[in-house]
Amino acid sequence: MSRLTTHVLDAATGTPAAGIAVELAGPRSLPIDAGVTDADGRATLGPEQLPPGEYTLAFRTGAYFAERDIPTFYPFVTVTFTVEIAPDGSQRHLHVPLLLSPFAYSTYRGS
């Protein structure tokens, strides 16, 4: 099983969003891991497998836009998601993409 991955794309420029700090927290908001998106806008976080429960990814988007001298309405984006284990004990790969612009964002369950 691979770790949780994310991919951030700057929808305003059509390019990967490199250099965004990302924090993974678990149940009761306990910190698990942190990282920064690479040149391709990707980051890998956490242990090999997350136990079932609710988790959050916090993206520090304000700093990303500030470095580009672009005002933004969202200084950070928090995505909350649920980890489940299948009846056979397996867990699907966890991929949480973020499409970002200064005044909007969207996310979905990736593969």
Description:
This protein is mainly beta and 111 residues long. Helix content is 6%, strand content 44%. The protein has one helix and nine strands. Strands 1, 2, 5, 8 and 9 form a five-stranded mixed sheet that branches. Strands 4-3-6-7 form a four-stranded antiparallel sheet, with no helix packed on it. Strand 3 and strand 4 (31-36) form a beta hairpin. The longest helix is centred in the middle third of the chain and has 7 residues, at 61-67. The model has no long low-confidence stretch (mean pLDDT 93).
Summarize the structure.
With 111 residues, the chain is mainly beta.
Question: What distinguishing features does this structure have?
Answer:
111 residues, mainly beta, 5-stranded mixed sheet, 4-stranded antiparallel sheet, 1 helix, 9 strands, elongated
Give the topology, please:
Blueprint (H helix, E strand, L loop, with lengths): L3 E7 L4 E2 L4 E5 L5 E6 L5 E4 L7 E7 L1 H7 L9 E7 L11 E7 L2 E4 L4
Parallel strand pairs: 1-8
Antiparallel strand pairs: 1-2, 1-5, 3-4, 3-6, 6-7, 8-9
SSE string, helices as H and strands as E: EEEEEEHEEE
- General shape: elongated
Spans of 5+ residues with little confidence (pLDDT < 50)? none
**Helix count, DSSP H or I runs of 4 or more residues:** 1
**What gyration radius follows from the Cα positions, in whole Å?**
14 Å
Mean pLDDT: 93
Query: Main β-sheet, in a few words?
Result: 5 strands, mixed
| Secondary structure category | mainly beta
Q: Helix coverage percent of residues?
A: under 10%
Distance between termini? 13 Å
The number of E-state strands comes to 9
Proportion of β residues?
Answer: 35-45%
